[in-house]
Specification:
It comes from Alkalihalobacterium chitinilyticum. InterPro entries: DUF169. This protein has 11 helices and 6 strands. The chain is α+β, with helices and mostly antiparallel strands. The chain has a domain of 187 residues. Strands 2-3-1-4-6-5 form a 6-stranded antiparallel sheet, with helices on both faces.
């Protein structure tokens, strides 16, 4: 119980820090992949059991970040065939690995499509489990991944925070599809933060807006990330980005002529 309390306090502090320094329009969320035998948190919705439908992972993420829901998605809750393969709920079959899903939509040929599918991060059977998603301010579990959607300036703000104690740069991968695998699988497997370009499916089915990007990072780095948010804020890296306004305007010639008249009159 003590560990649960400590964890809950840290997650709550993280949520408040993101809200204070990043100001996202939707809830920052925590994600955990729970293995067989782990007890799911109370009051989580199971899409098929509780809502009567199977969803894509991007739908569940949007429900959590916009509705404030906590959801748990197992193999029976998944509708997206790409996610079924990526998250090891189904074995990869030749029809998939040969590039048929990408061919004609994302790839000129099946051979090119096969390369596209190879690039999708994938769990092994040992890494697979039930995906639990919840807003940080309501999470009753310790997340493995933290994800926040925002505009490019807000994502830039989080990139700066994540590099505050390490320096260097962030490396991310973009393919215009299967961003759920980038958010969860790649971040877990690399144990490094990622800038996420929402994929086409996330925009169609998750209804992610055109201006939105996302940032994910491993929860193992939570303390340095919070330190980075505070430290960069003190250093002047802030959101909303402050505009430099200490300059004297230049006006149209007629405006300037009137100003000259005022100056001449004040000099009399």
């Amino acid at each position: 119980m003590e560990n649960a309390v400590n964890h809950s306090g840290t997650v709550g502090l993280l949520g408040k820090a993101i809200e204070k320094f990043v100001r996202p329009d939707t809830f920052p969320i925590g994600i955990r992949v729970m293995k067989e035998g782990e007890v799911l948190p109370e009051k989580v919705k199971r899409p098929l059991r509780d809502l009567g439908s199977r969803f894509s992972i991007c739908q569940a993420i949007t429900m959590s970040r916009r509705y404030g829901w906590s959801l748990a998605m197992g193999s029976e809750d998944q509708s997206c065939p790409i996610a079924k393969v990526a998250f090891a709920y189904e074995d990869e079959v030749d029809f998939y690995s040969d590039g048929n899903l990408a061919h004609g939509m994302y790839a000129k040929t099946c051979e090119i499509g096969a390369e596209t599918e190879k690039a999708v991060p994938k769990f092994s059977k040992a890494e697979a489990g039930t995906i639990v998603i919840a807003p940080l301010n309501r999470a009753t579990f310790e997340p493995q991944i933290v994800v926040t959607y925002g505009n490019s300036a807000q994502v830039m703000r989080m990139v700066a925070a994540s590099l505050y104690t390490t320096g260097g740069e962030i490396t991310s991968h973009f393919s215009a599809r299967a961003d759920c695998a980038d958010i969860i699988i790649r971040t877990m497997q690399t144990d490094k933060p990622q800038v996420i370009l929402p994929c086409y499916g996330d925009r169609v089915f998750g209804q992610t807006h055109d201006h939105e990007m996302a940032f994910s990072f491993p929860y193992s780095g939570v303390l340095s990330f919070m330190e980075g948010l505070e430290g960069t804020h003190r250093g002047g890296v802030r959101y909303p980005v402050p505009s430099f306004l200490r300059y004297e305007n230049q006006y149209p010639a007629t405006y300037e002529r009137l100003n000259d008249m005022f100056d001449d009159r004040s000099g009399d």
